[in-house]
Amino acid sequence: MAPRLRPRHLTRLVTIGEPAIAPDGERAVYLRSEVIEPEGGAPPHYRRRLFLVHLQTGRERALTGGNAAEAAAWSPCGRFIAFLAPPRETPPGANAAKQLHVIAADGGEAWSRTSFASGVLEFVWDADGERLLVTTREDWRDQSSERGAGRWLDTRLQRYDGIGWLPTGPVSLWRVEREEGGASKRRSGFDQPPRELRISADGKHLVYLAPRDQDEADMGLSRLWWRRVDGAAAKDVLGRAGLLSNVSLSPDGRTVAFQAPADHVTIGAPLTTFVAPRRGGNPLALSSDVETAPSVAGDMRVGKGPTRPVWLDAQTLLVALNREGRSHLAKLGLDGALEPLHGGDHAVVAFASGAHRALAVVETPTSPGVLVVRDVDGTERRLADPNEAFLAERGLRRHERRTFVGPDAQTLSYWCLQPAKPRRDGAIVIQVHGGPYTNYGEAFMFEFHALAAAGYTVVYGNPRGGSSFGAAFAGAIKGAYGTVDADDVLAIVDHAVAEHPKDDPPVHLTGGSYGGFMTNWLTAHVTRFRSAVTQRSICNWLSFFGTSDIGPWFGAQEVGGNPWAQSEHLWQQSPLKYVANVTTPTLVIHAEEDHRCPIEQGEQWFTALKVLGNTETRMLRFPGEGHELSRAGRPDRRIERLEAIIDWFERHA
């Protein structure tokens, strides 16, 4: 029998992301992250390096050292690669402002091109390849470091998960010479921080996203703007704000592709791909009820994609089609024609294209990420699979997809991961995904394999409210959390138990974020579960409003109101109202710097269970971590979390 996979083996896995193809289509770079365990008792940390790979032969080599490189971009001539990383002298694992670096693709040492106090926010190569445009925050200061100083607040949004206190000061655009020692010159400023900078092929125009004012910024909204690089005035392309993302400029610079909900503002609606004239005009929706950006959940990823549409020619875009728990590359025409380029049970989580080739990071249920190149003739080849040998030794099992019709005629899908050596009691662990606008499916979850290796049957599915099953499916829970979504989770439990080889197996429950809400909700309404682990959860929509970085707008749109006008409606959907019913032994896991689902939510749930005394409960708090603890937290903390979950279930067998 293959040796058992354990939580500590997290340190053996390598994650890859952020692929970028050279202009000639012969080479590419990608980001590779691995865990380093220093001697002398220091905590482990991630080493993130850029790797250069030849697309025809698959030969590769490390391009950078141990700094946390990201956002690699090729120069137009293909001779240089720019990226963001902390200064070279930054100690491993320490946080430092990221600066712009450039390295020759042929090798050698990278040279730093900026030393801004707040670091570089974004950059883009100028069309001539001799310079780069970068954004940075001016007059930047971290008030928290001022001893004894108070902190004045004027905006609704002050802290953001993964960032902490948002910095102050305006954002400006600088033109930076590529060569070491070259000049830097401030070009202009922005009224609001821009993101997703794109430059036209002639180097004359910029396209980007930014809110118009602070009110839009506080609500998470942005607008699509274009302006001349050397000019200060910007044009609002769409004339409206929305939940915009994934901007891509056509080769001739006349058309902008972007993604947003169909109405631009409804959270959770399928991400539609739009095109609009750069100079302004009504956007054209190319997809509607079909997701054209990946949202399949996974816990072994690095980097920020890319997942934006790529222009293949003047009439065709390359997108990632996200449907029913799978994510595939597809061609999307300006006439709305959608042509999947492949099928199969996998998830494309990042992709790029250039010179008639596509490069993608592809996950399967048994592989955390493989770099795959697709040639113009449709031939696909694996270029990098850094975990193949190690995972082959562990004999990871594939999951089984099951589809059934629930009690109210809703078709539901879930997956069942069977252990190689089941526990004698045949115990099942039910996993509820976060979001709620994500989905489980054909991607890699180390957590699930660790549970299966401990003998548990792992069941994970997609109740209503999740993505990749259409707008009606996703929107079914708006203003009604804990209704049909809770029914769907219980229907999945019933179906999984009925299909299980052992009669009446014990069932344990866990989930994080929205999944934590559902864990709280279900244990307050049913006594079906042997034990539960609620993670980064929500229990009280009233206090969520004023403490979460997205509380004011997410709660209003999703749960249906604010605490002073719709207090009873919010309270009806808050698990805390029903906490006196909980008799399920519950472990509460929360990160202390989680600004998405603030730790006060976990504290309220834990304290209420303690005061009531109806069941056993403990709380595990992690310092220095935010909402992404389970996916990107410090390695030893991620391992401790997994071990705690398994131990809790085993203690309540």
Counting H and I runs of at least 4 residues, what is the number of helices? Answer: 12
Whole-Å distance between the termini? 25 Å
**pLDDT below 50 for ≥5 consecutive residues: which ranges?**
none
Major beta sheet, strand line-up: 31-32-34-33-35-36-37-38
CATH superfamily of the domain at 15-144 and 155-190: YVTN repeat-like/Quinoprotein amine dehydrogenase
Helix content: 10-25%
Tell me what the CATH architecture of the domain at 15-144 and 155-190 is. Answer: 7 Propeller
What's the Cα radius of gyration? 24 Å
For the biggest sheet, the summary is: 8 strands, mixed
| Secondary structure: number of strands | 38
Oligomer: single chain
Sheet/helix structural class: alpha+beta
CATH class of the domain at 15-144 and 155-190: Mainly Beta
CATH topology (level 3) name of the domain at 15-144 and 155-190: Methylamine Dehydrogenase, Chain H
* Average pLDDT rating: 94
- Which term fits the overall shape? globular
Portion in beta strands: 25-35%
Question: Any overview of this molecule?
Answer:
The protein is of the alpha+beta class and 653 residues long. Among the domains are: 15-144 and 155-190, Methylamine Dehydrogenase, Chain H; 510-539 and 574-653, Alpha/Beta hydrolase fold, catalytic domain (Rossmann fold, 3-Layer(aba) Sandwich). It has 12 helices and 38 strands. Strands 31-32-34-33-35-36-37-38 form an 8-stranded mixed β-sheet, sandwiched between helices. Strands 1-2-3-4 form a 4-stranded antiparallel β-sheet, with no helix packed on it.
